[in-house]
Amino acid sequence: MDGFEGNKGYSERFGLHQVDFVDGNRPRTPKQSAYFFAQIIEQNGFVSRKQDHFEGVKISPPRRSTPLPPSEVPSASKVVWEKFTPQKKFDRQMYHYGNFSQNFLWGVSSSAYQIEGGWNADGKGPSLSIWDKFTHTPGNILQHDTGDIACNSYNKMEDDIAALKKVKVSHYRFSVSWPRILPDGTTEYINQAGLNYYKKLLDSLIAANIQPQVTLYHWDLPQALQDVGGWENETIIERFRDYADILFENLGPKVQLWITFNEPFIIAILGHVQGTHAPGIDRPDTLPYIVSHNIIKAHAEAWHVYNDKYRASQNGMVSITVNADWAEPRNPYKQEDYDAARSFYLGWYAHPIFNGDYSPLMKRSVLEQSLAGGLTKSRLPEFTPEEIKRINGTYDYFGLNHYCTKSWTNSCYRGVVLLRDRTWLESGSHWLTMTPFGLRRLLKFIKHEFGNPPIIITENGVSENGPVDLNDVHRKYFYEKYINQVLKAYLLDDVNVIGYTAWSLLDNLEWAVGYTERFGLFYVNRSDPDLSRTPKASVSFYSSIISCNGFPDPASGTHELTKQKLCEKRTSLYGLFARTALMSHPQERSPTFLFPL
User: Fold this and answer.
1) What range defines the domain where residue 117 resides?
2) Would you give the distance in Å from CA 572 to the centre of its chain?
3) Is 459 a catalytic residue?
4) CATH number of the domain encompassing residue 161
5) Per-block average pLDDT, block size 10, for the chain (597 residues)?
6) Rounded distance between C-alpha atoms, residue 284 and residue 277, angstroms
7) Total domain count for the chain?
8) Is 32 in the same domain as 130?
9) pTM of the model
10) Catalytic one among 459, 464, 480, 510?
11) Co-location of 32 and 86 in the same domain
12) What is the C-alpha to C-alpha distance for residues 521 and 546, in angstroms, rounded to an integer?
């Protein structure tokens, strides 16, 4: 019960029962924790709740006679938020034991420009990528870093395969460098040396019993195409279709999983509004909407090429990967706050592809802001009825990149605004807070909003900066908590999640911040000319989750994951969390204004 706590008197209370010190009889009232603790005593621990396992979806293209209809839920984000909002912090963090389906995909990610190097090797040199030009321009990248050498994966393929085998993944996600295949971006000249490199990589992966998941475009556009307008020029739709056709024809027999675009939101906003990513354009008018419009149409054309020419023989799956934070509404009584991120983050690209056309909310919001800005029409382009029909349903699964949760609001003056809750645990990146509870909510939202498609989490990870510490306890904590939330979504919410991919395999070039922020499971020693790879502690931890295919109940026996001594791990993290809490300022929220509608 609450009692006298030394020099703190009665101001601090540790009791399971509240004592009314005003009443002379000192009555005791049990707190909620008293009932909870009594239940633990009665059960002599934590009784495993048996769940019917939701059967995973086999990796085969879904067959639909008609496209899915638009969502009939007025606001799936509100439905999901209201389901989970009664949860206290303790409930959100409650551990859940269980396993994923037997054919669950476990992977790790990378991208060409961030790891390959060989920036002008074997025929790539005549026409570079927009990131080659961007990083070679002084002032764009921290510490003047470039991807000229990066992790030198172009010449260290065997080392990367060895690293993948150590993690025990079943899948490896990597991207193809467009200018390494088509130096000027067109089919006028196909660089066979570039194709041979990726064929060798595919052969090496398959020999190691690791299946590839290949991204067509992870931001490294040929500079020759940017010189004629890049994603603003509608002719790029045809260029991308031809590029995809070449990869499907030459690499497709050995690839079952394809991604057309990685994070189109980042391409549009960081590359064409904020100018902090290549091609470095700062033009927040109609440009991000035009760029996104063309990307959506280019994705659809690539999907149709595969569907019409290669699906019957290759039997693979093609989709797009969108990035999304979970959006906690800043004002729980304001419908606009529920919908802000849904339309301008995830829904911008997913709604046309999965449900047909831009959402009515997005159309209305952009129109209102356009008119308020003195324009006579909306900055958001319109799809023709024929384009809507061609785009709708161009997916075989839902590719999702997720890192954290944000608090969102919709301001009529400033557009979509995100705020960071400073009580959330921080990482090595200013934008990334450790908020695992949001991933389960986001997965359930996708289920309700987009018809429960097969979901592959194509990126999820956490960074550090500063001195190197191979005992990356924060990353072990991150993976444990986030993957356990995925398990909850799978077993408790019947979300059709079929794969999880950690970001990233190696400490690599993190775009504008260079090599200062490290997401890798493997440390890359940049002071060593050989760029040696050293596994961090998180490698064995993640590989144990993979080997156990989730989090088996310790009561069912000794498993590889239990050997990781999770209790000791949590204890070692206490100091980290305590220091983070001391640096937090619960009363503060820092706003970030994304872009005007």
Assistant:
1) 76-563
2) 27
3) yes
4) 3.20.20.80
5) 83 84 79 75 68 39 42 54 62 83 98 98 90 98 98 98 98 98 97 98 98 98 98 98 98 98 97 98 95 98 98 98 87 66 78 94 90 95 98 98 84 60 89 95 94 98 97 97 98 97 98 98 98 98 97 81 52 39 34 45
6) 14
7) 2
8) no
9) 0.83
10) 459
11) no
12) 14
